[in-house]
Specification:
Largest sheet: 2 strands, antiparallel
Helix content: 55-70%
Number of strands: 2
Oligomer: single chain
Number of helices: 13
Order of helices and strands: HHHHHHEHEHHHHHH
Radius of gyration: 32 Å
């Protein structure tokens, strides 16, 4: 009769593999990169601290001038805020038009986006400042017929209901806001369109099934969910807009940060120190915007990419 061999603990211990002694992988390239970074940072600190061309006293003195601070508040921050309001509002409208089933609305939005994305902002601002020559009699809104055509039709009267002074619209800060805002609207249209397309179509269909109109469903259901995709690139566009306000010299806008610093540098023949002053101001402003962008992204990104909370266990329940 066959018998089954019993296994002994000594035999089992002999069959086990020995203790694994893991040797960490060495990364000499990392230490070389760290050493190179330390050397470069040290060289930069030495340059900033010892080179007299920085002239830190003049840098901080020029930054504290009233004209420079006014340029920062009006020409940089105010124009950035107003241009982004025009750009975001116009971009959302253009995105909805692009997604419309109506070919006229979709085509008009595409042409607007194509035109303003194709023109450099400096040239656009320069052209905006010269548009007054096209409307020497004023910028009129209404049916574009002059009195001769109206009389040929057997009618009378002026069919224009509003006339504005073009020389006041296409100059100064107003021209800068219009130029930068319309250019930004073309870019924001694509950002908003991508955000809207990222939301499942079933969300819109469910909202319409509940009796919401298409516009209300877009405002209440689709756009809040699309903000998760829209906010990050919009923050980048805001930072880029802040820097692009230095192009307002094409209008020209004199109450602007870089314009005022350049004037001070030309007056005292200190070009480099005023460039350092402008750099410090832009670094501070963009840092604040980055912090705001971080909190906005965290707010609209709630519930996405996070683990589901564990179910609460009843008090006193024991483990299985």
């Amino acid at each position: 009769m066959a018998t089954v061999a019993e296994s002994h603990p000594a035999d089992a211990s002999r069959d086990r593999p020995g203790e694994i002694r893991a040797i960490p992988v060495r990364h000499p390239g990392r230490w070389v990169a760290i050493a190179a970074i330390v050397v470069v940072v040290g060289m930069f600190i030495h340059l900033v601290g010892t080179n007299k061309e920085f002239d830190w006293h003049f840098v901080f003195e020029s930054m504290n001038q009233n004209a420079v601070i006014e340029g920062l508040l009006k020409g940089t921050l105010l124009v950035t805020g107003l241009s982004m309001v025009v750009g975001v509002g116009g971009g959302v409208i253009l995105a909805v038009m692009r997604l419309s089933d109506n070919p006229i609305l979709s085509g008009a939005a595409w042409i607007f986006t194509w035109f303003f994305r194709s023109i450099p902002r400096y040239i656009l601002l320069f052209t905006m400042a010269t548009l007054g020559i096209l409307f020497q009699q004023g910028l009129s809104f209404g049916v574009p017929f002059d009195w001769k055509i109206i009389s040929w039709l057997g009618l009378s009267g002026d069919w224009r209901f509003l006339t504005l002074d073009a020389n006041q619209i296409f100059t100064g800060i107003v021209a800068g806001v219009l130029g930068l805002g319309l250019s930004e609207a073309a870019y924001m249209a694509e950002i908003a369109r991508a955000g809207i397309l990222s939301v499942d179509k079933g969300q819109l269909e469910a909202a319409e099934a509940l009796g919401m109109s298409r516009g209300k469903a877009m405002r209440r259901v689709v756009l809040p969910q699309a903000m998760r995709v829209i906010v990050p690139p919009t923050g980048n566009e805001t930072i880029a807009m802040l820097k692009d306000t230095s192009l307002l010299i094409a209008v020209p806008v004199t109450t602007e940060l870089f314009y005022q610093l350049q004037s001070i540098g030309s007056q005292y023949y200190k070009t480099f120190p005023v460039a350092v002053a402008a750099t410090l101001y832009y670094l501070a402003a963009t840092s604040v915007l980055m912090v705001g962008q971080y909190f906005l992204e965290r707010h609209f990104g709630r519930g996405f990419g996070t683990k589901a909370p564990r179910e609460a266990r009843p008090a006193g329940a024991g483990g299985a």
